Amino acid sequence: MHSAAKKVAKWYGAWALALLAIAALGNSFSGHGEYGVSTHLWLTITGLPLSLLSWHVQNGTVLGVLVAGLIGTAQWTAVAEANARWEAWRQTREVKNQ
Question: What keywords does the record list, in alphabetical order (predicted)?
Fold first, then answer.
């Protein structure tokens, strides 16, 4: 795995874990699902388009937030890895063409 993909996995994973903790703590201290719904929405927005699949799980639950975080982390890590490989391939092509 490329170092850029590792950074993306680390930072987006930390973002997802922070929102998961907010959802879990918020749901345990209050009787409504406001924290779960808002954190699920934030992870859906930052993990578009694949994180929309997490809305097939119960919306606003800790499980839904977990699924959205995992999908978003996997998606953006794959995008960073693909970008790093593309850039490496493009640089080798530029060297060969000179």
Answer: Membrane, Transmembrane, Transmembrane helix
